[in-house]
Amino acid sequence: MESNELKTRISQKLKSQGVEPDSDRIEAMINRLVNEFGVPPTEAERTILQDILKEHGKQMPKPAPPSSGDSAPIADLVPGEWVAIEGKVVSVADPPSPAVAQTGVIADSSGAVRFVIFAKNAPALLRKGAWYRLESAVVDEFRGQVNLKVHSGTTITPIDEDRTLEPVITRIADLSPGIASVQAKVVQNWDVRHERMQQTGLLGDESGVVKFIVWKGESDTLLEQDQVYTIRYGAVDEYNGRLTITVDPASCTRQDEADIEVVSRQGAEEEVCDRFEGKIISLEPSLSDAITESGVVATPEGAYAFTVWANAGIPPLEQGGWYAFEGVTKGIFRGAQRISLGEGAVVSPVEDRPLPPPGITPVAELAPGIASIRVKLVQEWESRSDRMLQTGLVGDESGIVKFVIWNGEGSEKLAENTVYTFFYSVIEEYNGRLSVNLTQATALPEEEAEMEVSRGGSVISGALVHIASGSGIVKRCPEEGCNRVLSRQNFCPIHEFKPDFRYDLRIRGTLDDGQSARNILLPREVVESLFSMTLAEAQDIAENQPLGADEVIRQLADRALGRYLSVTGRSFEDLYIANEAAWITVDHAKQTDLLNRAGGESA
Amino acid sequence: MNNPGRYAGYVREPAKRVFAAELRDARYSFREGEDEKSPTYILLPTGERANRIFVIGSLTQKEKKGEQHSMYLARIADPTGTFFVSAGSYQPEAMQQVAKVEPPAFVAVVGKPNAYETPDGKVLISVRAETVTVVDRDVRDIWVLDAAEATLGRIDSFETAPDAEMARREYNPNLESYKKMVYDALVAIRS
Prior knowledge:
The complex is a heterodimer of chains A (about 600) and B (about 190). With about 600 residues, chain A is mainly beta. Chain A is built from seven helices and 34 strands. Chain A has an eight-stranded mixed β-sheet with strand order 13-18-19-16-15-14-17-20, with no helix packed on it. In chain B, strand 5 and strand 6 form a beta hairpin. Chain B starts with 14 loop residues before the first strand and ends with a helix. Residues about 1-10 of chain B have low confidence and may be disordered. In chain B, strands 5-6-7-9-8 form a five-stranded mixed beta barrel. Chain B has a three-stranded antiparallel β-sheet with strand order 2-3-4. Chain B has about 190 residues and is an alpha+beta fold. Chain B is globular. Chains A and B meet through helix 2, helix 3, strand 27 and helix 7 of A and strand 1, strand 5, strand 6, strand 8 and strand 9 of B.
């Protein structure tokens, strides 16, 4: 929204409440909130209106339905608005619940939207194919999609003329949940597995492919393979991160002249592998209908995680069996190479043979993928899920890494003080940190073995979310080798009253990266460099200001809490002791990376 | 340091990074375990539980509420929408911290999300603050990147995350729309 437009809206709303707007002041407030403080325009509008009305002793008006004669283009509807639209009802459907009288899709030349008429005080139902003007309908969001609510306060006026309506064709790559029209070719017919389903398969155009479903209904028409259709106002839904378009054959037009060069879904991210032979190391049951099974396959050259897609029609694989793989693709999934067995993949059993034992990777050299490691349990963490059997840290001479063991057949907890070799564990990357999934890995415990785990001078980072008591300026016992922190009354638990204490400065707190919250200790040198507060200054505050030592903590908290820190140090039990620390600055390369991740190819 | 067991059995809940627009969609909360002290979680639509959250945004308004003005209510805007934050007499530090803030100001808030049902049946999420500190725009921008990364992480691991099944059942989330939310938030911090 332009700031001028915002200013006009605020001014109009003030006038409607009998308040004369001060244009310069509103502009200054917009500038301050929106430009300086990054407040979204709608929130800025609310804030400014409320602040100014309050000064005049008035309340914010409740949002009122607009009564203007203009109607909004359907494509521009935004949740939270009351609108008037004019459109053609292109489909109606049986109500999904008794609370609903009718649902359907209404379209204009800009786009289409699902509407719902609630049963309570329902106005007249709409007729398919007819044009209507709807006033005071409410745009809201249902399951992330824009939805038009028709309620008892909505005025429905039939429009007699039948206006021309051409659907806006959306490229398949640009589809998002909602209502869309596409021009596409039927590229695959899949087996129908659901009794209410009439047909399912893949539609494709030059930009990509999408799954389609035809539900059983009035017509028995099937879409023909390799035929191009214009599909009007299909419902696009998302399930398991994939889109599906629901097609009504009655609203499809065959395009006999047209042909479309369909691009495959895999696109640039996946490459076709040469034929190879490998042994199935582990298999996991699938959690999704689209996937039959997944697991790890090892070849003499290396091991890979693999996924068998349901559409590949591959019979169940056998753990420990050797197979030849043809027509499979390799892609990157969460930072690791993963083999995908989709349509066209052929898997045939081959003779068993010995597989050379895989090389052991030092923890410090792990990367996403499959690796074999020789490690010892370092620390067990409280599991945060019922599905998790055990989680924590394992380590070797080179470093430590997070591990997870999920509940499942044959899953066992790691025992303390035992060195294990894990063959073919899955290394995943999550939020930039590696984690070893040991659930399916083959474990070989060595009860006699000893291993010195290096906890390294590792770096942790996060926001300082808590400062604990015992932070700030503290007094320490001066006895040789004691160094304990004294109570406020200068009492040492061992050496009793010590009026000749030494001062020290420190922060005990919590560094939280969103995944874990760690107790950290920032000793004096680190506190002094981070907060530009020396021990001498802290001592001065403690001795000369009314709040004394509390003032030191208050000042440190004001400068520290909620800020991002990167800390180098060592773990000692559950405490991470810093050698160095630095404030984190804005990383614009990270912003670019994240924009790419969030925008995908279509951005 | 002579008491190795002092943290044993207690693991502090990490503070989840969540954008206002996602928190606004949350409505399902649950308690893990029967114990009186067992934590309550809000289920985020992208499939992760949150007992504590960390947000940075602009405090646009604050208001004293309650008997003897015993609590503050504040509105805090991030690029995607608004958080409702409360600080009451049970959080004296947070309350004093809010009292000092002169809006508008960037603030960092650590707190616990709570679900409230309004009389008309809507569920609102408000954040009970543990700490509130004034920060600058750079820190806010770092948080936007952090929240973006965490949200994308939740979206990307939705198929395998332990809480995703519950999120699918409760919200059937449109993950693409949350990706778009992240994208818009990232674009909004471009200077």
